[in-house]
Amino acid sequence: STTDKPGGSSTGGAGAPIAVDLPRADSDFWNSYAKYIPQYAKEANLNLMTPTNSQNDIAKLVANTQALTSQGAKAIVMAPQDTGAIATTLNTLEQKKIPVVTVDTRPDKGNVYMVVRADNRAYGQKACEYLGQKLGGKGKVVEFQGSLSSVNGRDRSEAFAECMQQKYPGITVFAEPTEWEGAKASAALQTRLAQHPDINGIYMQAGGVFLAPTLQLLRSKNLLVPPTDSKHIFIVSNDGIPQEFDAIRKGEIDATVSQPADLYAKYALFYAKAAVDGKKFEPGKTDHDSTIVQVREGVLEDQLPAPLVTKDNVDDKALWGNQIGK
Amino acid sequence: MTTTVTAPAPARRAVPLARLRDLALVPAIVALLVVGALIDPVFLSRANLVNVLQQQTELSLLVLGETLILIGGRFDLSLESTVGLAPALGVALVIPAASHGIGTEWATALAVPICLLVGILIGALNGVLILRFGLSAFIVTLGMLITLRGVQIGITGGQSLFDLPPSVTYLGNTIWLGVPLSVWLCVVVFAAGIAALGWFRQGRAVYAIGGNADAARAAGIRTDRVMYVVFMIAGLLAALAGLLMAGRLGSIASNQGSQMIFQVFAAAVIGGVSMNGGKGTLFGALCGVLVLGLVSNILTLAGVSAQWIQAVYGLVILVALVLARLTTGKSQDS
Amino acid sequence: MTTTVTAPAPARRAVPLARLRDLALVPAIVALLVVGALIDPVFLSRANLVNVLQQQTELSLLVLGETLILIGGRFDLSLESTVGLAPALGVALVIPAASHGIGTEWATALAVPICLLVGILIGALNGVLILRFGLSAFIVTLGMLITLRGVQIGITGGQSLFDLPPSVTYLGNTIWLGVPLSVWLCVVVFAAGIAALGWFRQGRAVYAIGGNADAARAAGIRTDRVMYVVFMIAGLLAALAGLLMAGRLGSIASNQGSQMIFQVFAAAVIGGVSMNGGKGTLFGALCGVLVLGLVSNILTLAGVSAQWIQAVYGLVILVALVLARLTTGKSQDS
Amino acid sequence: MAAVGVSKHFGATTALSDVTMRIAPGETHALVGRNGAGKSTLVSLLTGLHRPDGGEIRFGGEPAPPAADRGAWRRRVACVFQRSTIIPTLTVAENLFLNRQSEGGPIRWGALRRRAGQLLEEYGVGVDPGAPAADLGVEQRQLVEIARALSQGARFIILDEPTARLDAAAIDRLFARLRGLAASGVTMLFISHHLQEVYTVCDTVTVLRDARWILTRPVADIGHDDLVAAMTGEAVGLTDVARRPPRDASVPAALRIDGLALDGAYEPLTLEVKAGEIVGVTGSGSSGKVSLAETVGGLRRASAGTVSVGGATVGAGVPAALRAGIGLVPQDRHREGLVPLLSVGENATMPIADRLGPAGMILPGRRRAAAQAAIERYDIRTEGPDAPVASLSGGNAQKVVLARATAREPKVLVLINPTAGVDVRSKESLLGAVRAAADAGTGVLMVSDELDDLRHCDRVLVMFHGRVTTELQAGWSDTEVVAAVEGVSA
Ligand SMILES: Nc1ncnc2c1ncn2[C@@H]1O[C@H](COP(=O)(O)OP(=O)(O)OP(=O)(O)O)[C@@H](O)[C@H]1O
Ligand SMILES: Nc1ncnc2c1ncn2[C@@H]1O[C@H](COP(=O)(O)OP(=O)(O)OP(=O)(O)O)[C@@H](O)[C@H]1O
Ligand SMILES: [Mg+2]
Ligand SMILES: [Mg+2]
């Protein structure tokens, strides 16, 4: 609803108000995350303030944070897409003794109570290993890079490039800048296919934006063939949305790294509550299949598992993409 | 009084500058073709050139609409949001709620007509605000740009629409005689546009309105009515571009078309269309579209690093401009 | 022939429309303050209002620069890239390569002067291309917008710079008498601007140039020189805005300032500045900035759902426009 | 055709108040009045461009068509507007046939250009129908507008100051054509500030003053002085131009032009204007007279030669010219004369902005005072110094331009067609001001097509194809000038 009483609790829970800022409203992954937030807040009986949305704009995030603080938030969950520019805000919040949990991204500077994140370098790594293995160490791979100004895009790109260079030097990688835009990816792939008709692998750093354009293009070029066909192009995606699972079931793509939208929401709220309650965490294994690491002084990071989904485990009920309707 | 009438000043045949300006980009296009061929022989392959054309179809339709409006002396920024909203609405009204539809589940055959109708309505709404209420075109369409995109996000909840009915994907996804249907479509639409602007009264009226609206009114042109039609045509073309894009990409992202408006203006203005109205041709604008398409294709083929690609792209555009200036020798307007 | 001399038509004192137009947004601002107070008592708290002001400081500097250029009848889209590039270059030249610097490691005291100088140079470059080469301002600055952003990404590799020297963070991060220094700075700069445009020769010259450049030239105004200065001032202000933003955010993202230009134009045009030159005031533009800031603050406080916030924002802007139109009763220009 | 009790207001200005005027079919009706009397406003009502606030327009007894039906208006009335309605971005041919390029169906450009060529030839306009209208000179534009209006075949034609920008030969050609049209039964409404023309071509005359109707009479029944009295509301006649006392040969030269030339416009020319002397320059279209004045005023850069004022050479550019003490009234007040959005006061004081306050500051009080002085001195009809200059009528706008040119009390005044579109009384006051400036020691170079202007000159130079061919001392006869302008020796 658009008119929830501001500052009030939309979940009706008790305790200190906890604020959540959503990073954007135009991506499937984050919209799923947004849906999980109130759901888990209810489960944990939290006093959740109406979430704000910073629309992928750091200036809006800062403004939202200030507004939420004025409205009495005792802990803030955010997902700064620009990891550099949030530093000052974090300092301010620290001075005001308001703990921050960041989701998906780790600030370059400044202290936070906990970073809830999957290891984005691992995404790139997993994709590289899967492709390298399927291609037998040689071939040509197109990589749709995310925006260079986002840490996730950079981590995935760097890890993918390093791994390819070290482990599979026989594979040529074409890294296409896309700014997370499907149309740019489609145009680049089309051009690249004309230049190198023998391309046999694709790594997409975000299934939400690249999946449909890629499939549509390959379909129109009759390149969407089963893995048994020699013309098959191996595709690894990233995100774990239901559409990707469908495509895996149909054999149109081969794998995706499931970025746990549900766990992000669940543990972001979990740590926010823990912070308000004054709990402390130490590096090491957790009770939910993950590891807390200390990335630097003042910053702990809970690295949630991000499973590689292939035809073998695509129907696993535990995957968040199988839990929501499309 | 008797006078031998002095011979009228020698009517030196003026160089048809408008004509020249139109062709100003042809050398640039040739140069780009040569550069492309040198960088990679694949560039000149039929497949690659067809790709370039197909990738530019949506942009070219938007540019056509925008050029009409610019020639008429107005302005429309909201086209890029129409590219997203029109097909999104058309699709959301027909697909089931499970696929992020609105839940109305109208007959799928209605998707395309709804989409086009939405485009026309948006154009009409712009027209009402600008022509009837006398609001500034820039700020109205900027407001519409934001609002329409917001409505799309609101309706779809920010999700991409994946389950497109075949009628929607048909246009952007069909090949006729080895060339995408969308390319044929553009050829037809541009031919019609060039004919209308060059040889028909209603088309010439747009030039007159952009050149001097008062004079056009004095000459009996129904300036408002003509501009309403122009805004609606532009909306329709934007909706059509949205359909093509949806078909080509197989889905409608909630940011479909976003950021295109800068490219639209770049293409039109590089192609010699004046921001002050009354000047420019569709042929020139089309050349502008091709230049942009060729430049990005070549940069992709050349494998310019992600780090520097944007700087190179911008620089190439600036150089193209300076060259166009030197070839025509005509100062451009602000 | 006899005629009774008719009395001259009563020269009723004309309502100074320009003055009225200036104040057109004041009721809107008052209305927003009331609405905000009703929605959340926090809204009227000193802290919140100071926040709103601080958040708008950077935008307001850009709007000042753009308004000067618009009044002079030109156009500059590249300001938003200057906001990023100028401080990025200033910082990259002084910080060590390990912090993503270029490696020159000049004296840190140079960061701010370099930043401001870069802004001025970019303005001068725009001036050369537009005034000297006679290129279209729209397309030149669009090209610059892309190129400058590309250069910033190229230099920094797309990384944010976050080891900023204290001189750079000082301006955006200091509080004087309970109010951020950046707010004081804006107050001073705007006061200077309003005085210059209203009561100084060079300021009035900008209006004359935008109103009719030929007439201004015939009246002895050095039109090109004035416009060079205006472009350089705008570049300088954009660089300053970049410094403020860098200080406020504690780092310089490679997309710092990106997407701001739409807001800049929205604020200026809502504030009554004409896109056709010669019309508008800094006070009006400042009101436009405040309206935008208040609207977003209120929408945040009201907790409008993420799904619909953008649509609501756009709609509010459109409504503000229509209201401004109805209060002044003056038709706006295209 | 009738306007019955029409009124029109623009904001606080009353442009027409309860004006009733009937024009009988077939008559040639003159409409005269001072600048700002409301003539052009009446035209805009009669052509359907504006709707009257009160009263109504009727054609042949029937009410006027609805405002939206432009086609119906155009069938009833054709008009040459005072403001240019030429569209500069289109070709001459298309301007001539705007919105009637074809009878439906595609336009045949070749045929259109040929038709345009014929039409232009009939009116003696030597331009290429395929050229963009932006390339036309002021006079050629005016001729194109006239040709367009007369060729539409309407039975009622309005001409709002058609002759203000034409030279004598073109005016003669126009009048010959108007007489032909009148003979064929076409009704005409003719507006001019040249009362001579009213007597030459019109049957009836209507006078407007201060937005009100004053009288309608057959021209034969009203004398020149009475007409002027009706227009001005003062029962005084025009005085003959007083001869100026001869200049003393020892007076120093205010302006010296030495071998000045502009390629393609005029050939090297040497000329001296003494302090207090008024030198007229005339010639046909494209004789180079305007270019000459513009070079002296700093608007154009000479290709050879020098201009000097009081012995010191003047650099290129307007600022240098201003500094040297040259004031300029440019040819086209809309293009180079005024900044429409700014106030009367600001336009009039633009060149003296540096004198209105310390350190580049402009003190509003001082500006208003300076502007008020100029308004009074030139009798500018305006609501006051703060009114936007765009709201002035043509003649009053021209006075603002003159006020601007004389703001710095120049040593040399360069005027280009200074009285174009200015009413009789204002013309007198304008020229009186010029004479007063000359009497105070200013050297005046006046480029004009109008014999009335030239009569105030101490001597008149006639240019032909870029060269001064004739020099006439005061006391010349009209035929001498006309002959010299046309390039035939008298
Ligand atoms: N669009 C307008 N807005 C405001 N005032 C106007 C407008 N048009 C005309 N006026 C005013 O109406 C009055 C009549 O103007 P109009 O142009 O009809 O005079 P005119 O008799 O044609 O004068 P001229 O001989 O100088 O052409 C003037 O006071 C003028 O300032
Ligand atoms: N800067 C220039 N370069 C080349 N040719 C020019 C230039 N200025 C004027 N001319 C040409 O010189 C001729 C004289 O021009 P000018 O405008 O001085 O004539 P004019 O006597 O003022 O005519 P009119 O009465 O029509 O204004 C014209 O043929 C014009 O096209
Ligand atoms: Mg008039
Ligand atoms: Mg001339």
Automatic annotation (TrEMBL), chains B, C:
The keyword Transmembrane helix applies. The chain crosses the membrane at residues 20-39, 84-103, 109-130, 137-155, 175-200, 226-246, 258-275, 282-302, 308-326. Keywords: Cell membrane, Membrane, Transmembrane, Transmembrane helix. It is found in: Cell membrane. It is a multi-pass membrane protein. InterPro entries: ABC_transp_permease. This is ABC transporter permease.
Automatic annotation (TrEMBL), chain D:
The keyword Phosphoprotein does not apply. It comes from the Bacteria. Pfam families: ABC_tran (PF00005). One of its GO terms (molecular function) is ATP binding. Residues 1-235, 236-490 form the ABC transporter domain. Keywords: ATP-binding, Nucleotide-binding, Repeat, Transport. Transmembrane segments: none annotated. InterPro entries: AAA+_ATPase, ABC_carbohydrate_import_ATPase, ABC_transporter-like_ATP-bd, ABC_transporter-like_CS, P-loop_NTPase. CDD domains: ABC_Carb_Monos_I, ABC_Carb_Monos_II. PANTHER family: CARBOHYDRATE TRANSPORT ATP-BINDING PROTEIN MG119-RELATED, GALACTOFURANOSE TRANSPORTER ATP-BINDING PROTEIN YTFR. This is Sugar ABC transporter ATP-binding protein. The lineage of its organism: Bacteria, Bacillati, Actinomycetota, Actinomycetes, Micromonosporales.
